[in-house]
Design brief:
142 residues; mainly alpha; two-stranded antiparallel sheet; 6 helices; 69% helix; 8% strand
Length: 142
C-alpha cells in the first residue's frame, strides 16, 4: 500500500513539473543566483512556478525521494518575496507625468524597481533558510 501511495505521489509530482511548469525541474538555486547577480529571467518567479515548486517538493519528499529541501525552499522563499515585492513596490515606482498639458503618461523607474526586487529576493531566500534550519543567525549569514 505504501509503495502504491508513493507511486501516486511521484506520478502527480512528475506530471506537475513536466506539464504545468517545466522551469521547476531542479532545485532552482542556480536560477535564483543568476537572477540575484543581475540576469533577466522573466519566467522564473511566477505564481504558477511558486505553486508547482511547492507541491512538487512536498510530493517528492512524501514519496520518499532522496531530494533535499534546502534548494527548493530557498527558491520558494525568493519567489514569494519577488511576488510580494512586485505587488507592493510597483505602485511606488510609478509616476504620472503630464506631457504637453493634455496628455499624461506613466513613468516607471525600472532600475530602482529591479534593485529593490533583488534585495527582497535575497531576504526571502534568507528567511526560508532560517525557517528551514531554525537558525535566525544562519539566515542572516546567507
Amino acid at each position: 500500500v505504501l509503495v502504491a501511495v508513493s507511486c501516486v505521489f511521484a506520478t502527480i509530482g512528475v506530471t506537475l513539473v513536466l506539464v504545468v511548469a517545466p522551469q521547476c525541474g531542479g532545485s532552482g538555486l542556480p536560477e535564483s543566483k543568476c537572477y540575484l547577480n543581475g540576469s533577466n529571467m522573466p519566467s522564473l518567479f511566477t505564481v504558477r512556478n511558486l505553486w508547482v515548486r511547492t507541491a512538487a517538493s512536498i510530493l517528492a519528499n512524501a514519496a520518499g525521494f532522496p531530494v533535499g529541501r534546502e534548494g527548493p525552499t530557498v527558491t520558494i522563499g525568493s519567489n514569494l518575496a519577488f511576488l510580494l515585492s512586485h505587488t507592493f513596490t510597483m505602485p511606488f515606482m510609478r509616476q504620472w507625468i503630464d506631457l504637453q498639458g493634455s496628455t499624461a503618461t506613466v513613468l516607471v523607474d525600472e532600475e530602482r524597481f529591479a534593485h529593490a526586487t533583488r534585495i527582497n529576493c535575497a531576504v526571502g531566500g534568507a528567511c526560508a533558510m532560517a525557517m528551514l534550519f531554525n537558525t535566525p543567525i544562519g539566515g542572516l549569514l546567507y
